[in-house]
Amino acid sequence: MVKQQEKIPWWRNSRVVNVVGQLAVLAVVIAVVFYLGNNLVNNFQRLGLNFGFNFLSRTASFPIANPLIPYSPNDPYAKAILVGLVNSLQVMFFGIILATIIGVTVGIGRLSDNWLVRQLATIYIEILRNTPLLLQLFFWYFVVFLQLPKIDNPLTFGGKVFLTNRGLDIPWLRLTSPTWLALVFIIAAIILGIVFWQKRINAIETGTSAKIWLNLSWLNAIAALIVLIFVIDWNIPQFDGKSISGGVNLSPEFATLLIGLSIYTSAFIAEVVRAGIQSVNQGQWEAAKALGLKSSAIMQLVIFPQALRVMIPPLTSEFLNLAKNSSLAVAVGYNDIYSISSTISNQTGKAIEMLLVVMVTYLIINLIISLMMNWLNFSVQIPER
Question: For position 240, which CATH number holds?
């Protein structure tokens, strides 16, 4: 007769213990949040203050320099916050792109066989990584941009780009029908470029000819470049001897923040790239050379795709740091969401509410960046069987 299995007591069942433990931790967290929230409400009542966001509908009554979306001092505080959010997003977006391009270039240069290139990359990284970001922002603002020529005597590049102590004036798009069609074509060309690149890698891995995909990639890039230059309706800056009109003006504050953040973050990205490349087994280099591939093709098709699997997690941290460091815009007078929220807090006395707005905004932005990078990390991993 088979002996009946003894039932395990619930306090010794690992599944039950794990669930109970998690519920206990969740209860403690809820209790702490409730306690802090109740304490906040009581303090507000004791001071005769009201917690709420009704003030966002009031008139802002302060100007914002160079807003990307239409804004006037007669608009409500909510519109001012939206302007600050857009200003922050443009710095983050272009900063991540610029920092990545510079960082990858410097990181590869750090491993160059050329002694001079290698030493210059090392000096670049060590100087920028070991000096405070705020100090670098002050350098770019006070030493570089504010010392540029006045607007009546600008530095000119090709007669289409002007650099003064009021910022950088560059050509910009006129949103006409040809421009929209050209933008759609360029987006399609970028997607095709990614497809051709994947096809080329697959062809090399399977041992078939990849030349056709390389030729298609070049034709695609040339077509996109022609459309970018000749089809898009450009608004060119014009200098009349006293002022500059047309195009778009990048203020010294915006340029300072963008360049400062990009260059500072690129030094950390360069080390991430260097470490990722060095993590690839040396046998991969030797096997690629045995196939007769050039050094540039080896890096592009063999080494860098494998290093990318190692680089993406630390790159995510650097992108998040760049997004959070953009709040230093207040130090150089750039109107980002943190700077505008500080102004609103001073005018209305709603410090707690504005603090929550800023915290939630940065939290959402960073969660979106993390989700996108996690998706990219998942897409480049080797699927396990």
Answer: 1.10.3720.10
